[in-house]
């Protein structure tokens, strides 16, 4: 096992990796920008090094600076977490050049799976079901029109590089196609430095189901069950659960075999995720994430397998500690991503200072967080505050615990997605397991109405707590936050 690992990330995922390191008696090295000087993770690490300028390109995306720190600190390996450099093949190349182990797959594998056109071709050769569409990048508009006609509308235009749904456009008729291609090319060029786009058949209201993979350098590859990730906004996941409400043992075996086939075909090692779209009894390869996923805790909870520790062990040359028959699904887990966003203003980011904080607890509750009272959420990075995870012996119990945990969670000073999550947990379509990737858009009015009702209920609860729970200033702060949510809702109604 390594003696020292540098974590090339920040926030809650940095703390999560450091916890795994600590349990394995591995020293951890934190890096931090000027905006993260007071972040919790910097004090959790054994060592910390400054990056300076908070701009991502000059800090957490600056490979040269991070490599210099890794060498100076004597770190034997680098764990990239998720986001930033987690799927950057150049980091893998630089690690190899400097004799440092990248905790993840090889740079070659990252590169092949990072390009959606290449990955789709590879999966087709591997015998994994793929969605019909172009096999090469689209540059000629006339050709694009012909392809779309042959596939049949609606189609979806995607950037070949990058991920997270950035630049993705759905097209229902020919007149929209040219604008969609030009728009996606522009966004892709700006965000990924690659304007290549491709077209594929658009599947109406699919479920987003993914399989967790673990693979070592000794020829062992297994899947660690499935996750449902259909509750999204702008193609970004908001709520995940494991297992999927529709999953059967037969379907899990079939989709799991496809996920393993995909990983083995590209000689994958470490933890990874094969994502599928599922519709009307059929499933299709969507993409492969060559990193640890944000939603990995729900898989850990239902299988009792520490995925980050397994990553560290695999990278150090050890064989997998599990075989496929060892993987057992126990109960159900739900994860809510708590973001500093206003759900009544189209999830607009709302960074700022946390002026009051009370975290939930109790049976079956896990909270992965990197914030604290009086912490200021920076404007430079992702809006995630924490991940709230609950476990139950079945789906109903997991949801009930999530409702209870959300009711305990208090964050003052910034608007958060907590009211949104409360609204989803009482939504009848969600409770029945009727999920698809357009869930939030399709039921938006009802969800927003529930959020307003929830905020009014919060006002009553705050009044009850006034004399027994919080000092007057904090009560006033909560009341102001509630009023801000409700005023936003009224303004949105006026605009409509």
Automatic annotation (TrEMBL):
Xref: SMART domains: Biotin_carb_C (SM00878)
Q: Which cofactor does it need?
A: Co(2+); Mn(2+)
- Which top-level group of life is the source organism from? Archaea
UniProt keyword terms in alphabetical order = ATP-binding, Biotin, Ligase, Magnesium, Nucleotide-binding, Pyruvate
Domain called Biotin carboxylation: residue spans? 1-445
Q: What is its EC number?
A: 6.4.1.1
User: Where in the numbering of this chain does the ATP-grasp domain appear?
Assistant: 120-316
Q: Which Gene3D superfamilies match?
A: ATP-grasp fold, B domain
Picking any one GO molecular function of the record gives: pyruvate carboxylase activity
InterPro entries noted in UniProt: Acetyl_CoA_COase_biotin_COase, ATP-grasp, BC-like_N, Biotin_carboxylase_complex, Biotin_carboxylation_dom, Biotin_COase_C, CPAse_ATP-bd, PreATP-grasp_dom_sf
- Protein's name according to its UniProt entry: Pyruvate carboxylase, subunit A
Record organism: Methanobrevibacter arboriphilus JCM 13429 = DSM 1125
């Amino acid at each position: 096992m390594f003696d020292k690992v540098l974590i090339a990330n920040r926030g809650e995922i940095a703390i999560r990796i450091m916890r795994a390191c600590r349990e394995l008696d591995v020293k951890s090295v934190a890096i931090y920008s000027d905006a993260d000087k007071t972040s919790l993770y910097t004090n959790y690490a054994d060592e910390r090094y400054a990056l300076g300028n908070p701009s991502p390109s000059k800090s957490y995306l600056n490979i040269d600076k991070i490599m210099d720190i890794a060498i100076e600190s004597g770190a034997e390996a680098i764990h990239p977490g998720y986001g930033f450099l987690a799927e950057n093949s150049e980091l893998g190349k630089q690690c190899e050049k400097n004799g440092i182990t990248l905790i993840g797959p090889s740079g070659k594998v990252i590169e092949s799976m990072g390009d959606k056109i290449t990955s789709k071709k590879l999966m087709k050769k591997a015998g994994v079901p793929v969605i019909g569409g172009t096999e090469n990048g689209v540059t000629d508009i006339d050709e694009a029109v012909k392809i779309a006609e042959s596939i049949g509308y609606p189609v979806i235009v995607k950037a070949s590089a990058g991920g997270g749904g950035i630049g993705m456009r759905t097209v229902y008729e020919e007149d929209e196609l040219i604008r969609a291609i030009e728009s996606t090319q522009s966004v892709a060029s700006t965000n990924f430095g690659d304007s290549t786009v491709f077209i594929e058949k658009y599947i109406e209201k699919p479920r987003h189901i993914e399989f967790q993979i673990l693979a070592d350098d000794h020829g062992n590859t297994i899947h660690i069950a499935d996750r449902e990730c259909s509750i999204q906004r702008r193609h970004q996941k908001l709520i995940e659960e494991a297992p999927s409400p529709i999953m059967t043992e037969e379907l899990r075996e079939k989709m799991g075999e496809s996920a393993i086939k995909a990983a083995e075909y590209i000689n994958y090692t470490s933890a990874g995720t094969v994502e599928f779209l599922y519709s009307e009894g059929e499933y299709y390869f969507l993409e492969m994430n060559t990193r640890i996923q944000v939603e990995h805790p729900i898989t850990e909870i239902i299988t009792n397998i520490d995925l980050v520790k397994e990553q560290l062990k695999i990278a150090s040359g050890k064989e997998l500690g599990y075989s496929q028959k060892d993987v057992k699904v126990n109960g159900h887990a739900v994860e809510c991503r708590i973001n500093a966003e206003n759900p009544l203003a189209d999830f607009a980011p709302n960074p700022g200072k946390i002026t009051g904080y009370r975290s939930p607890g109790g049976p079956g509750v896990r909270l992965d967080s990197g914030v604290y009272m009086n912490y200021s959420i920076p404007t430079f990075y992702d809006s995630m505050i924490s991940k709230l995870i609950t476990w139950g012996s079945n789906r109903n119990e997991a949801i009930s615990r999530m409702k209870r945990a959300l009711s305990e969670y208090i964050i003052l000073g910034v608007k958060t997605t907590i009211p949104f999550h409360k609204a989803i947990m009482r939504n009848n379509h969600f409770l029945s397991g009727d999920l698809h990737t357009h869930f939030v858009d399709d039921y938006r009015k009802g969800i927003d109405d529930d959020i307003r009702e929830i905020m009014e209920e919060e006002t009553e609860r705050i009044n009850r707590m006034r004399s027994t729970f919080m000092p007057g200033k904090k009560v006033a702060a909560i009341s102001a936050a509630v009023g801000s949510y409700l005023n936003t809702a009224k303004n949105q109604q006026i605009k409509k």
